[in-house]
Amino acid sequence: MDRITNIPDKKGLKRIVIVGGGFAGLHLARKIHKKHFQVILIDKVNYYQFQPLMYQVATAGLEPSSISYPHRKAFQKYPEFHFRTCKALRVRSSDNILETTIGEIHYDYLVIATGCDTNYFGNEILKESTFGLKSVSESLLIRNRILLSFEQALNTTSEKELQKLLTFVVIGGGATGIELAGALADMRKNILPKDYPELDLTQMKIHLVDASPRLLSSMSEYASEKAAETLRNRGVIIHHSRSVTSHVDHQVIMDNGDTLFSQNVFWVAGVKPNSLEGFREDNYVRGRLLVNEYNQVQGHKNVFCLGDTALMITDEYPKGHPQVAQPALQMASNLAHNINQMAKGKSNFRKFHYNDKGSLATIGRNAAVADIGKFHFSGLIAWWLWLIVHILSIVGMKNKIFVFLDWAWSYFNYDVSLRLLIQPKASQIYDKS
């Protein structure tokens, strides 16, 4: 057994410890040759979460199980794969040890793929008073908040209270922001009139607040203009070049002094890397670990970093690669190739080169925007392309089928029956265990 932690002996194999079971970590674990390595994957939760579709769980379009997959199920046929639910705390590179909440884990190779978390830019008020969307649990929390608002709206006689309950504020004009705002607009048009015929849904307001002068600032101007045009046509109120400074007593306060009165405030305005302690200060730039073209952390031969947390500075990407899925997946594939070559005693390692396959963002039913190379298009074709890409990217054949069936049913029937307001029962059992 390993020191302190209950991990089986390596049996003469090299041990790779992967921190984080997101896009990069899971992809790397799948591509490593298991006959040469013992692979230890650690994560704070025991399942993979497909982040691009969390907004659909939040708006009751998909079940949470459809975008989640148990880590252990993915590797049932690999005896030298082991998973542990814990949190990584610190790297002691001089001893090749990773300190975690369950003890110390010795490694031969360490791969940091911890991804990103919500960035509130140091504003604790917004952190405590708004809803984030970076996990399945947060998606369910948003779903409950949305559904509870309409249930409460049925029972209020106060106009001010009704305004608070029927006003929805999405902060952040990136892909997640426009997708969430578009999904809310679809709900208002197709779902809510049937579920809540007593409510005057003309009073439901959807605001999208973005600090940038245009939506989808990482995509083309064409995509930005089409996204804004589509959202406005669907009744979303867009506030360009506005940042939110506070949210107190249900008042959303913007930097120009304007206020919005809302109980439903969703923060999707930025991300920050989940970094680990144990590295020198000059290893980090804006919270990301500096890596070379082989994804090695600066000054560490056997420590690697992938995905959102990695900062690889090149002539083409002087500020690092985009913090999205494709760079993470491609970095994982490249590193897996190099590590597998090491196991064979070969040294023909590949330098990482990012192949930008384009960007997609959906704005709701039959509407999406796409930047594919020099081509920029929108509408139904972009929407179908978005659907296909995301179905193929979901982990697990069962999940692919269920998502397809849910989307197909919703497309023809305008109604997926997932609007369940499930709240945890108050209990002290977990506190005592």
Tell me about this structure.
It is globular, with a radius of gyration of 23 Å. It has 433 residues and is α/β, with parallel strands linked by helices. It is built from 12 helices and 25 strands. 32% of the residues lie in helices and 24% in strands. α1 packs parallel to α9 and α5 (136-153) packs antiparallel against α6 (159-166). The two termini are 26 Å apart. A 5-stranded parallel beta sheet has the order 5-2-1-9-21, with helices on one face. It has a 4-stranded parallel beta sheet with strand order 13-12-11-17. β15 (251-254) and β16 form a beta hairpin.
Counting DSSP E segments of at least 2 residues, the number of strands comes to 25
Rg calc: 23 Å
Task: State the major sheet.
Answer: 5 strands, parallel
Q: Given the C-alpha coordinates, what overall shape results? A: globular
Helix percentage range? 25-40%
Top keywords for this entry?
433 residues; alpha/beta; 5-stranded parallel sheet; 4-stranded parallel sheet; 12 helices; 32% helix
Task: Write the SSE topology.
Blueprint: E1 14-19, H1 23-31, E2 37-43, E3 47-49, H2 54-58, E4 68-70, H3 71-74, E5 81-85, E6 88-92, E7 97-100, E8 103-106, E9 109-112, E10 116-118, H4 124-129, H5 136-153, H6 159-166, E11 167-171, H7 175-195, E12 205-209, H8 221-233, E13 236-239, E14 244-248, E15 251-254, E16 259-261, E17 264-267, E18 271-273, E19 284-285, E20 288-290, E21 303-305, E22 310-311, H9 325-343, E23 359-364, E24 367-372, E25 375-378, H10 380-393, H11 397-413, H12 429-432
Parallel strand pairs: 1-2, 1-9, 2-5, 9-21, 11-12, 11-17, 12-13, 20-22
Antiparallel strand pairs: 3-4, 6-7, 7-8, 10-18, 14-15, 15-16, 19-20, 23-24, 24-25
Helix pairs in contact: 1-9, 5-6
